[in-house]
């Protein structure tokens, strides 16, 4: 009966002569069929005037992401703004009762600025949307005409192509976009409809509603397509489904692979697992990246289904990539106390990991190796008879940093080797949390490269050494966990945040290679000390130079305590992150100093500094850095902790000695110093004792010399009391014993000033 009444009303109203209103610039608008007097649009209503609707264009750009600039179709207005003609332009158009200054519109813009340089124009037509629904649907025509007029002004005044324009409309805004597209004869590059409104549009002719002919590519996201029911409550409750469309779109911008849609006959078939996997042509990504789908315009009415999360992040919890496998945002990778945010790693294409080969034959210019094209390996200087060392940078860094290449060059001075710098800067130069998740893909790509070497060249993983700094240490761990029989991993101050305290599958751990050694240089807690490295032992051998927290020559100020994690390297890298960077500087220098970084087993740095851990045990001490794998006891069943001291600047290498003195002469107050002389040189003077010096008393002390003196030939013994004493009391050494930390033997002698050692 109700349908009959509506049909009767439509017939009666349709019989009334239509009206028309015309406006300068925009043209004429009618309330006649198909805009009024039809079953779908029974009421005959004219759109309001442009003045009443008051459409405004609020421009945000990468240069002004937080404060909009109001622009008009006037050329001077556009010239005076941050609008850039060499960028894409995205219009974001709200719907019924909304406004252009709502947070969701500017949030879409801000997310875009994270991934591209763009002009983002929020279309504010609240003057025409905040009225009765029927009137608002008619005002759609005015707003669409205003957008079309602005695009034409850009085209005529600035040579700006409509194909560079993307209209994103929510609800009634979808049909606003459709109206603008029609007026530009479908020349618009793309229109995205975010849950296009049903009442007054569904089943209407194409001229009234959004339609595939309105742009070169039209995609729509449907989130509230159940039959219309009365609106009975507040917006976020009753309209939750409707609003999800723009929330999904917002999230999709920073999740380019998180919304894959699967071609399927129905959602029932989709949930029955009848539509997996993606066909050979791939799956489109719902949202911002839908236009990358190769078959996007192969036919009208292509239907795709997917599931989302129930709250931000909405991106689905797994992505899969050829040759690399699948990656999840479920525990232990996300949703935990250590990793609260649910993020998926970026795609291999976006991270764009590169393998840069340097060898003894090409020490200055790299050769690019591509796992997808083995001919690049065949044509390179890669030698299967040599060891291969991969150097992996960390957060914010890049594979072409000078320290990475310097490490290769130092290696070439002592060995013939394939040195491959892993460049994943596109995946590391982003927010820290995203970079930490990208680690998984980079590690998988590295493992794939090792698989290619093993498959094509029978190259054994046992000949491979992965050296990773910061996040790069965990990249190495990921690669190692995927590569049975990997020879060695060296972690250079593995980063703490998002990794410390996680299960072994998430972080670097001893099972990732036959031998794993770790150097800790910034192991103080992240909060409040801003220590970027982990204190957790992650190797067979863990070295803690200078105690592992505060490196000589590095100082932090109050500013470094308040810099947020994602901004730590911005202009203050070498200052704020000095401790963190020391790890690779120590390793770099260790290559040319095979005995200059001897480390001592000890319970704590306090015991080490209290001279309780000298000399090396019978089995010897490991050398921190390049030669750690030469230590006979390197793979004990229990984790091993070692301590040493370094210099405060180049050269960092130090050699530890212990000197013991038994005094002779008179009782005096003063200080005793010694200097060592040997076959390779002599040391500076080092303090042995300060205080009351009694005959027969023995005093001992350990110190770290700047050089290895070689075979000890003599010891220079000095004392003074800084007091004028006319009796000139004499103090001598009844016995002097000198021992180098790595040696079990001791040198002994005696004398009053200089003594030859036996």
Features:
758 residues; alpha/beta; 5 domains; ten-stranded mixed beta sheet; 32 strands; EC 3.1.1.3; lipid metabolism
Uncertain runs: 1-15, 229-238, 557-575, 723-727
Q: Numbering strands along the chain, what is their spatial order in the largest sheet?
A: 15-14-17-16-18-19-20-21-23-22
As a whole number of angstroms, the C-alpha radius of gyration is 36 Å
Q: Give the strand content.
A: 15-25%
Average residue pLDDT: 88
Domain module tally? 5
Which class of secondary structure composition applies to the elements?
alpha/beta
Count of helical regions: 20
**Tell me about the biggest sheet?**
10 strands, mixed
Q: List how many beta strands DSSP finds.
A: 32
The N- and C-terminal alpha carbons lie at a distance of: 119 Å
Please give the CATH architecture of the largest domain.
Answer: 3-Layer(aba) Sandwich
GO molecular function: lipoprotein lipase activity; metal ion binding
EC number: 3.1.1.3
Family: Belongs to the AB hydrolase superfamily. Lipase family.
Catalytic activity: a triacylglycerol + H2O = a diacylglycerol + a fatty acid + H(+)
